[in-house]
# Entry
Amino acid sequence: MSLPGYGFSGKPTRPGYGTRRTARIAAELMARLGYERYGAQGGDWGAHILRQLGQIDQEHLIGFHSNMCRAVPPPGTTDPNAGVPPEERRLIAAARQRTAEGSREGGYGEIQRTRPQTLAYGLNDSPAGQAAWILEKWRTWSDSGGDPEARFTKDELLTNIMIYWVTETGNSSARMYYEARAEPVHYTEGRVEVPVACALFAREIVRWPRRWVEAQYNLVRWTEIPRGGHFAAFEEPLLLAEDVRAFFRDLLDR
# Structure
């Protein structure tokens, strides 16, 4: 589904539309559509939403697949690297080196978390500003070697930009960051017991140790995918779809 404030979804007109509320909206939507059992998939904000959906709608959600399995060190952990294999530590360190917390890559998020309305006027007023805001992330977060046109056509890039531009959602989409700051997701609050699959694309901007994920989710599938970055559904749709199908096929065969 398209999240509130994004794309062709409605724009919230009052505060409170963060990831928790979006998870409740998703559960209600599936109920209204008549689905007694359903699966879900997502990354980025979707990863936050899926975690909460897995806690509030266990009766109907049969499981979810994520290409960004967020986690924190298990409670009581003194050494977060304990039990994490050296090769996995290397992959995590490489991701952190590309987009380390607090580095220049975090600037976009900080302004959206603190001053989204100020930013919104520039994004909504200037097509060049909107294009630069989005393309900079496609350049650094995709598996394109720093050249997005080596991986995507101009039509593909412009289509993504135009969805924000023609719907004037530069403002409403940025507010998700503000709402998340006001109502953060605490990953130590409860364990997700519905079956979970994680697909790790090689150039994702950040990754977490499997040991951490297993402590907070009922992890039944863990797939290392050799290429692709943060925009997995756009970059490697076939690889993502194959992993999603395999996960849910196994669930339905049980």
